[in-house]
Amino acid sequence: GNLKVTGSPIEIGGKVQAQKTSGSDGEADLTFAYRPEAGEAGIDLAFSEAANGLLAGILNLPDKPSTAIRISGQGPLSNWQVDAGAEVGGEAVLDLAGSAGIDGSDTRLSLNGSGFPEKLSPPAYRDLLAGRMQIDLAAQRDGNGRIEVQTAKLDFGKFFAAATGTFDPEGQNSITGGLSAKQAAINLAGIIPGVDNLAPKDIAFLIEGSGEAASIEITGDIPLVDAGTVALVGLRTRLFAPSFNLSERTGNLEIEAELSEARSDNEQLAKLLQGATYLSVNGMAEGERIRLQSVEAVNRGIEASAEGVVELAPFAIELSPTVT
After folding, report:
1. Could you tell me the sign of the dihedral formed by the alpha carbons of 35, 139, 218, 226, in that order?
2. For the chain, what is the mean pLDDT?
3. Count of CB atoms within 10 A of residue 216's CB?
4. pLDDT tens digits, residue range 25-42?
5. Is the dihedral of CA 58, 59, 62, 64 positive or negative?
6. What is the reported pLDDT for 8?
7. Are 206 and 217 in contact (CB under 8 A)?
8. N or C: less crowded end of the chain, CB within 10 Å?
9. Which residues, other chains included, contact 102 with Cβ-Cβ below 8 Å and sequence gap of 6+?
10. 138: pLDDT confidence band, cut at 50, 70 and 90?
């Protein structure tokens, strides 16, 4: 490799080349340049490996095919143009283009593209990412934390996610979004630590009003939550915060939920989890803590009430229940 620094105007640049000396054939080339006075930068990265290479092994790709990745970025830092792509087994699986900009304390990002990312994913994510992906993103953030999402659309073979609007902890808010399964539910098995399976069908959110007293509503239709000892089937839930301080993360919370069935291998839990269950929670968010002022649960096996505390960092729950 080499590195060079030239005089007025200053330019810093270099080139690095690497080639594998054992195992399957592979090489990487990196070229970069930075012109601080002009506020410009450039980078070109190309990586490729023959079949049975290191990357295919790390990702545990079927049949260990050849892989190739390219990333190119050029232009002023206020409007940096990026192009990226990937190939697996000689087939193009990702093609992305976008731009990023930094102007003082303001930042801007846009990204568009398509591909088949499951072909370059480890086994746990392949079912989730199966099918053709299309992404369309354009957003910006100012120095005061105001985020404006012009468009955010992520379309996969099995689900669709989108968001649009403005999120501003210090000003006015109007942002909505969510995700929807294209089939029965989105399979997140093995992805979330501590949860054997999570299969949401529809999740939606809406935030409106001032940052000091925003109205927040989150709804979810989740056919399965399997945490190992307990499995919840047919969960429908709604969280509503009528006047939430976004900066301080404080405000009243109201949660309503119902589930069609709950199962457990634990005999004592199984006796309590009989038939449809209805849950109502009223609490107060206090930054890293939620005080549960009242929790009520009803089904064929129990009528229970409780109060307690949920610690968010690290996560922990303390409840004082009364069961009849």
Report:
1. negative
2. 90
3. 19
4. 888 898 988 888 888 999
5. negative
6. 59
7. yes
8. C
9. 77, 78, 108
10. very high
- What is the C-alpha to C-alpha distance for residues 145 and 171, in angstroms, rounded to an integer? 10
Coil, strand or helix at 9: coil
The tokens for 256 are 């309503």
Q: Which amino acid is at 306?
A: A
pLDDT of residue 230: 84
Distance CA 58, CA 206 (A): 39
pLDDT at position 106 over 70: yes
Q: Which of these, 121, 110, 215, lies nearest to 172 by C-alpha position?
A: 215
CA angle 282–280–284, rounded 5-degree value: 15
Q: Which amino acid is at 223?
A: P
- Report the residue count for the chain: 324
pLDDT, residue 4, reads 60
Query: Burial of 109 by CB count in 10 Å (0-12 exposed, 13-18 middle, 19+ buried)?
Result: middle
Does residue 183 surpass a pLDDT of 60? Answer: yes
Closest of 58, 81, 56 to residue 68, by C-alpha: 56
Whether the model clears a pTM of 0.90, i.e. scores above it, the answer is: no
